[in-house]
Structure formats: structure tokens, C-alpha cells
Amino acid sequence: MSRLSTPSKRASTDTMNMPSPPEDDKFHEDDKFHVIGYDVINVGDYEDIETKAKTTLISTLDSAEFSAVRDDNAYGNSRGIAVLEDRYQLRQEMATLQAQMAKMQREQEEQRHDIQRLKLSSEGYLKIRIRFLDVFRREVYKDVDNESLISITAGNEAAHHGDVVADAALFTSGQRHDRMILSDIYGVDSGLITELAEADDFETLKVLNTGGTWRANQSKRPVPVDIEAAFSTFVRELGRRKSPSESLVDGKTPLSKAYYAFWKAHKAHKQ
């Protein structure tokens, strides 16, 4: 595309009498300019604001000059160019604020997940501590009521039951490195467990906890064949699922069918 000559090279009869850009500037036919004139005026009681505004805008171009505002071409008086600069500055500040807000939202979401994981991890620990106190009451005070017996039973279960989120945290924090044991108990690695916890996928975590409990206590009671088969199938389908949002309860997908098959087997053997 051919270039246009600069206004400084136009004939002196140019009716616009436009100020010239620098001699080394060349404009393309498709170049775009921000043309802006700005001023502040006083208007008397009987003056026609429309007429005075038009006159003022025309007069602003008498002192107009070419300028580069960021990466854009501009033509206007000094006040107009300043307004254009302020416009870009406000946009930049707004973009910065939006980025900061997005970061804060991500951090809040991460904190929410951390709190949820801590809650899940602490529930079992609290049951164990309550059991500790109630055992003392039973053994030393010889005074135990039905509520204390229930808490002792719950504490026993917590001490011997799986806690997939807390156990995975031991590996993600670097406190343990024998990752095979996590996979042998729960059938999945710490990465997937973290994803499930962050997604608040409590139903899946519950299956992993229950299946892991069966496997972890097999020295006391061998894992029934149907439970092991159902749990292995569930873990396999969990790794194959197409989306984290895939339903566990619709009974249609292989994962959902494995979910129901596991609980059916578990309930059949639970004492």
C-alpha cells in the first residue's frame, strides 16, 4: 500500500492548516488517530452553550499537535492528550486491580480447600484423643457411661481406619517417601487424592477410605474377595473417568456402577 506524504509537505492552501508531524514520520492510508480536543470554559447566563462548545472545540485544534500515546497515534491539544493519557492509565490500573482480585480469589479458594482438608484430617484425630480420655475414665475412675463407650469405639475405628487425605499429606509434605504403600492401600497416588480433596469429592474419598481400611486391616481379617474385586474395579474406573465432574450416583457410567457395587459388597460383610 502506498504511503501518504506528511502534512508538512502539503500545499500551503490546505484549508485545515494542520500542524505538521515530525519530518521523519510517514503515515499509511489505514493509520488510525485518536483526535481529541479538551478545554474547560465558563458559560454566562445568557450564552448559547452549544455554540460556545463548538467554538471551543474548534479553538482547541488551533494548538493541536501530533503525539504518541502509548502505542497509538494521537492529535489534539495538550489538555486533550492528557485526558487520553489518563484514559490509558486508568485502563492499566483497572487491569492490575482485576489481576490482583483474581489472585486473591484463587488464594481464598486454596485456603478454603486447605481448611476442608484440615477438617477432614482432624476429625479422626479428635476421635482418637476423645478415646484416650474416656479410656482413662474407664480404667482409672471406673466410671464410664454409654456415651463414653461410643466414643471409645469411634476412636478405635479412627485409629485403624483409612484417612486418605491425611495420609496423602504426609507424602506431599515430604514427611514420607515410600509412595508405594499409599498406592497399595488406597489404589491411587497422592496427586489424585489431592485433586479429589480440592474438588470436595467426598463420596469418592469415602470409598477410598473404606476400601483402604479393608486392605490395611487384612492381617486381622482377610479382605473378602468380592470387596477386593469391587474396590479394585472402582479404582481402575476412577483412573479412566473422562471428567472430574462425572457422576458417581447416576448408575450409568462404569465408575458409578463400580461405586454401587463396592458399597453393596461392603455392607454385605460389615459387622
What does this structure look like?
There is one protein chain. The chain has about 270 residues and is mainly α. It has 9 helices and 5 strands. The longest helix is centred in the middle third of the chain and has 64 residues. The relative contact order is 0.06.
- Inertia-based shape: elongated
Number of helices: 9
Biggest sheet strand order reads 3-5-4
Share of helical residues:
55-70%
The end-to-end span amounts to 86 Å
Class of secondary structure makeup: mainly alpha
Q: Proportion of β residues?
A: 5-15%
Low-confidence stretches: 1-18
User: Which value, in Å, is the CA radius of gyration?
Assistant: 37 Å
Described by strand count, sense and barrel closure, the largest sheet is: 3 strands, mixed
Mean pLDDT over all positions: 82
> Secondary-structure element order, as H and E?
EEEHEEHHHHHHHH
Strands, count: 5
Quick recap of the structure?
Helix content is 61%, strand content 7%. It is built from 9 helices and 5 strands; from the N terminus they run E-E-E-H-E-E-H-H-H-H-H-H-H-H.
